Amino acid sequence: MGKLTLDAADVRRARTLARQVGRPIVKTAQQHTTVSVERATLRLAGLGGADAEGTPWVNRLADAVRADVGLEHGVALPVWDALLRGEAEDLLVLAQKAGAGSVTFRIPEGRDLTRARTASRKAVGAGIKQIDRRRVERERIIAKVGDAPRKPWIYLIVATGDIHEDIPQAQAAAREGADVIAVIRSTGQSLLDFVPEGATREGFAGTYATQENFRLMRAALDETSRELGRYVRLTNYASGLCMPEIAALAGLERLDMMLNDSMYGILFRDINPIRTFVDQRFSRQVHARAGIIINTGEDNYLTTADAVEAAHTVTTSQLLNEYFAKEAGLEDWQLGLGHAFEIDPAVPDSFRMELAHALLARELFPKAPLKWMPPTRHMTGDVFRGYLLDGFFNLVGALTDQGILLVGMMTEAVVTPWLSDRDLALQNVRYVMDAAGNLHEDFHPTPDGFINTRAKQVLGESIQLLEDIKAHPGTNYGAGLLDAIADGTFGLMKRPADKGRGLDGVARKAPDHYNPATEILEGDK
Amino acid sequence: MTIVRPYGDTTGDGMVQLSFTLPIKHSKVAEGAAAQLANKMGMDPALVVHAKPMGDDFTFFVVYGRVNHLVDTDQVEVVERDYPLLTPKEANAAIKRSLRRRMVVVGGCIGTDAHTVGIDAILNIKGFAGEKGLEYYREVKVVNLGAQVGVPQLVEAAIAEKADAVLVSQVVTQRDAHLLNTREMSAAFRESYPPAKRPLLVVGGPRFDETMAEELGVDRVFSRGTTPGEVASYLVHRLTTRKAS
After folding, report:
1. Whole-angstrom distance, CA of residue A259 vs CA of residue A238
2. Does the CB of A268 have a partner CB in chain B at under 8 Å?
3. Partner-chain residue, chosen from B120, B174, B206, that has the shortest CB–CB distance to A205
């Protein structure tokens, strides 16, 4: 390790700034709850399913509670108080009755309050124990059938829209060499304020994330893992308006990796910043417990901004993602921090710069399994040139010890990958790894050479950006980062803290707010 | 009239390359099947230069061969540019001269499409292909609504901003989402505006066919590779000539 001659004091400074900038956000997150956090709590207590119109019971119940007593106390106390009062024999019946308007909720007091707390903690605790069992199960299967044989893990995407089409494609991709299968979600699911139910057969440019789809795909990949003698990991997306619920479902169904970025929803989906930070913190606490590796979304910055000019925004976001992740209880091995090969190939020395950026990420986060994302922006439809670009992308991956390599397709921007595209792409990866996988042993950039200079420059710009964010006045919520986001500091998008989707699902916690899931997740840390 | 045929390394040789997958196990028969397909596509002789098994049930082929088809360029139908290309300076001057106010452009991605790369390339000051985006034009007011804008929201913004033109980009094309969304959008504008007052409707995206404008109910369709300068020139041309007529 240590191919770059970064100044240790600069690295410490960058981390300190990330903590100083992130701390007020964590505080804001602690002071609020959201509809999705509360619904995730109900899911952990075992409430699933949907009514005839497809509205999940957790939504029906949470909405009814909110209408009676507000969201600020959390749903646990009013819900288990109603159960203890004998309004219904279980959560499902209670949700059905609440949906029909035949239950009135209240905030219990005195002995009733204590009993409701105890009962809710027991019910939610059962769900968290199930997540613990799933984690042990993963470890057991890996011990038994074996793990991915080498790094980087080969990450392939399926996206047919139909879970029953996805399954054979995912199994075929695993047989062809994929270590990780990601099921892309249907476009627009991020903006649904509920999690669809059941096995789904139609989506746009992807397949809906549902508990049943998770279960079906994990079961199929378990079968393939045993056949291949290596555990094939499954990835989905905890992003959008339902991050906490999807995180809970992922833990319950033993998904292995989840896309989970601290700012993606804000910047690219126009989701309210407070909603995002509250949901993100809870979802990451669940991922930490479930032993799930998160993948952050820094590659997205480079799809809207110039990859050279905006290189430092990637580093800055990685530092913030690391701070928020660790605060939520995730460990280094769970941080798949993202970055991408998106520099315009027409720029002179573009490959040297890519190397510099990738090495910088590697050395700033030496224990994290970085996620290396292939070119998309400069894939033009010239599939031959694209194939070469993907080869260079793979070479950077090999030289800089990336943990997770998303396989680039030469038909990026042309079609959703064909069978042959995937096969050719995997040949490309294998050739580079076999031919140059150990080249990093001989690769030592000159201390004052181009790569070192560029890496230091990007780190310096990143520190400057963090200084600027910290110096932001921080009016509304006392947090400079929120104002920086409002001003368009990241990815050129302006996102004020009092705007954006999902704001009406946020509530400031009352002093008597109680959420047993948070209590368990934070208490048992 | 110009007759052309593909060029490999000699004029008139008609050579093309082709790759495809057949859902059969690799064998002599599979290679013969690939050659037969190429023959039926008009390649004669067809040379199967590469055949690779992909799993047990599929084989990938690369075929080189000669086609005997001729193409008459006079019979090719395309949408030619019917407006002069202007520099930003010329565009600004033309707007000032004929509108006597700034031109208002409202843009966004409609439906569930979250890919703003197209609309941003045209609108953001950053631009595309070395040309600055419309935000750079002093006489153009740009309102970029971003991703996943609802059609009613787009109409509302167009009315509120007194838009001269509405730009919509669509990248996601699964199940023809881009066509459905565009039709929904143009219908909504027809409903909300008297014909003479309706802003110019322009859609763009990599998979659009430029000849489909009328069918989609919009004024213009831009396809892959369109630059901000082309869009700006088109808008200036249409809005300033409409004003004059």
Report:
1. 6
2. yes
3. B174
Question: In chain B, which residues have their Cβ closer than 8 Å to the Cβ of A186?
Answer: 112
Contacts of A424 in chain B (CB under 8 A): 60
Report residue A448's pLDDT band, with 50, 70 and 90 as the boundaries: very high
Q: Which of A176, A188, A381 sits opposite B112 (nearest CB)?
A: A188
A431 and B CB contact within 8 Å: no
High-pLDDT (> 70) share of chain A, %: 98
- Among A242-251, A316-325, B5-14, B218-227, which stretch is predicted with the lowest mean pLDDT? B218-227
Instruction: Give residue B49's domain range.
Output: 3-73
What is the spatial distance between Cα A359 and Cα A450, in angstroms, rounded to a whole number?
13
Residues 6+ apart with CB under 8 A from B5: B12, B14, B67, B69, B70, B71
Q: Which of B73, B100, B125 is the last residue of a domain?
A: B73
Residue A204: which of B117, B120, B177 has the nearest Cβ?
B177
B residues 66-85 lying closer than 8 A (beta carbon) to A? none
Task: Kindly indicate whether the ipTM for this predicted assembly is greater than 0.85, answering yes or no.
Answer: no
Cα–Cα nearest to A506, from A190, A22, A37: A37
Q: Which residue of B has its CA nearest to A302?
A: B117
Query: How far is A409 from A420, CA to CA, in rounded Å?
Result: 10
The helix (run of H) or strand (run of E) holding residue A411 is none
Of the candidates B11, B41, B73, which is a domain's last residue? B73
Give CA separation, B80 vs A83, B42, B83, B101, B211, in Å. Answer: 71, 30, 9, 30, 10
Is the domain of B203 the same as that of B236?
yes
